[in-house]
Amino acid sequence: MADTPSLEAAASRIPAVLRQLAGPRGPRPRPALSRRNILLYGTLIVLALYYLLPLYVMVVTSLKGMPEIRLGNIFSPPVEITFEPWVKAWSTACTGLNCDGLSRGFWNSVRITVPSVVLSIAIASVNGYALANWRFKGANVFFTILIVGSFIPYQVMIYPLVIILREIGLYGSLWGLVIVHSIFGMPILTLLFRNYFTSIPEELFRAARVDGAGFWGIYFKIMMPMSLPIFVVAVIIQTTGIWNDFLFGVIYTKPASYPMTVQLNNIVNSSQGVKEYNVNMAATILTGVVPLFVYFASGKLFVRGIAAGAVKG
Amino acid sequence: MTDHPQKRPSQLLRNLTAKAASVPMILTAVVVFVGGTVWTIIHSFTSSKLLPRLNFVGLEQYERLWATPRWLVAIKNLAIYGALSLTFSLVIGFMLAALMDQKIRFENTFRTIFLYPFALSFIVTGLVWQWILNPSFGIQGVVRSLGWTSFNFDPLYNADIVIYGLLIAGLWQGTGLVMCLMLAGLRGIDEEIWKAARLDGIPVWKTYLFIVIPMMRPVLITTLVIISSGIVRVYDLVVAQTSGGPGISSEVPAKYVYDYMFLAQNLGQGFAASTMMLITIIVVVVPWAYLQFGRQRRG
After folding, report:
1. Distance between CA atoms of A137 and A115, rounded to whole angstroms?
2. Is B265 on the interface with A (CB under 8 A)?
3. By three-state DSSP, how is residue A253 classified?
4. Residue from A59, A155, A183 whose CB has the most chain B CBs within 10 Å, to mutate
5. B275 and chain A: CB distance < 8 Å anywhere?
6. Dihedral through CA B76, CA B79, CA B81, CA B87, nearest 10?
7. Where residue A128 falls among pLDDT bands split at 50, 70, 90?
């Protein structure tokens, strides 16, 4: 015999059972404002605000005048919005003797990034294609060296590259830096392309061979048109990576052709003169705009790119 | 495909176009990666100053290196920064991923926000945080102006805690990536496991700690290797945020190498220091590669 409490409990369940029999089934939908949701979204929003804070501070600071910065705090929105810091950062901020602003660095970065992205992707996609479809004896040995080599700290290879570039007369020139970017982008991109081309059905390749297409014919007429997504991913990885580079820029170019990151650092961290924080922040945003644009425009592809870039080997 | 051994042209001529097209890869692998590394290691045993020379002095450069206070500070910083950065990015990245994995709304928006710093360069990151941590106008100044006048938080001007200033910036930049990797790992775990755990009445946190995390081992290890090889390379962040200061208190090995090679014109020291960096990487990567690929071969 069941004792009273459990009977009562059973009785109290009856309405629920009845409801279940009558009404819709499945778990009850959670109310929008349950404790769990408040906690979950509250945490997420606080964290999101923390991650957004530096961007906010940059923008706010860059729109204030210097007197306002000296008085107020960095988090308060500007009382009087001014775009002068932006103009100054872009066209008249000084690095050393040059006072033509960040625009010089911007155009240098464009002149470095565009050929570097094109060349590195051209080389790496052909490498990947050869590795996937035209394996020759020893190809995998070189590929393994390439992948293992991607873990070697750049500092180990910096100086030998200086010597190589000096020997072929490209040290200090823009093209020297383009070659350096192509070299250090090669491991990850080759891996990316090799894996993608391997996933393309072998039959296509064979059919093209039977039709008499050669190495380049198949590459341009079949592989390239079929792999547009992976080319886009590669462009995203390389554009942000090369634009953000600092080390190679400072080593392999001359001051006149320093990329934007190097020039930005020189402007902000120069020890002479009064510090103009608003100009510095405007310059910082200007330097971050290109990769941020690539990031926001590419959406999920960027995530795919870094996932591909992250899972080496 | 049929083989005609007697008619086959010479081995060297087969696949000639593919070989020609692979010349850049072969040159990079052999000349730059292998050649460059060997060259640097060899020259780290010489007394090269302004120009690389082959007058061997044995281990003298290494002895000098380990007797230089600046290098010792750099190594100590790397160890502290590395340990903290590794721990915190794994923990924070995992917690963010776990939060994102609760079937939330606006997942894309949140992911976009957590990941955007990763698109920015270390230079930009360093400069922003230099500004936020500015003692007179930044966090310290703001808190003091709110009434708490004894509040002290100026990592960039205090040699004892400068490394934490770098850490804050580095974590802000890099945790989004860790989150993405972890999220991919979490999504790879079978839904059935969660159902089974719920059925058995195991609390959520226990499920994460004792079931899910051990199952994510491959992702965790890969993430670990990515973070650590990034840590050893830390250079731009320090240059932008502190320039190694105050004094030499935030020096890192990568900066030591650059300064000795290109500013102090003491190449031998630079080569010895970069070889030490290589050894650090080997210590991290080789066990991982052994675990990862050794198992694959056996499995």
Report:
1. 31
2. no
3. strand
4. A155
5. yes
6. -150
7. very high
pLDDT greater than 80 at residue A261: yes
Structural domains in chain B, CATH included, are 66-298 (1.10.3720.10)
For residues B158 and B246, the answer to whether their CB atoms sit within 8 Å is yes
Q: What is the pLDDT of residue A1?
A: 42
Rounded mean pLDDT, B215-224: 85
Q: Which of B51, B47, B71 is nearest to B59 (CA)?
A: B47
Domains and CATH numbers, chain A: 33-82 (no CATH), 104-261+277-310 (1.10.3720.10)
Tens digit of each residue's pLDDT (9 = 90 or more) over B51-84: 888 889 989 999 999 999 999 999 999 999 999 9
The alpha-carbon radius of gyration of chain B (Å, integer) is: 25
Confidence of residue A313 (pLDDT cuts 50, 70, 90): very low
Residue-level pLDDT at B288: 78
Query: Could you say which residues from 231 to 250 on chain A have a Cβ atom under 8 Å away from some Cβ of chain B?
Result: 240, 243-247
Kindly state the helix (H) or strand (E) to which residue B281 belongs, with its residue range. Answer: helix B267-298
CA atoms lying within 13 Å on the CB side of residue A169: 0
Contact B110/A at CB under 8 A = yes
Of B83, B76, B46, which is closest to residue B62 (Cα–Cα)?
Answer: B46
CB A215 within 8 A of CB A133: no
* Residue B277: closest C-alpha in chain A: A153
Task: Tell me the average pLDDT of chain A.
Answer: 86
Q: Buried b vs exposed e over A89-113: b needs ≥16 C-beta within 10 Å?
A: bbeebebeeeeebbbbbbebbeebb
Query: Does pTM top 0.95 for this prediction?
Result: no
Count Cβ atoms below 10 Å from residue A129 Cβ, excluding itself: 27
- Looking at the DSSP bridge assignments, the partners of residue A95 are A98
In this complex, the residue of A123, A157, A288 whose CB is nearest that of residue B124 is A288
Of B167, B187, B146, B143, the C-alpha closest to B83 is B167
pLDDT at A19: 57
The pLDDT of residue B1 is above 50? no
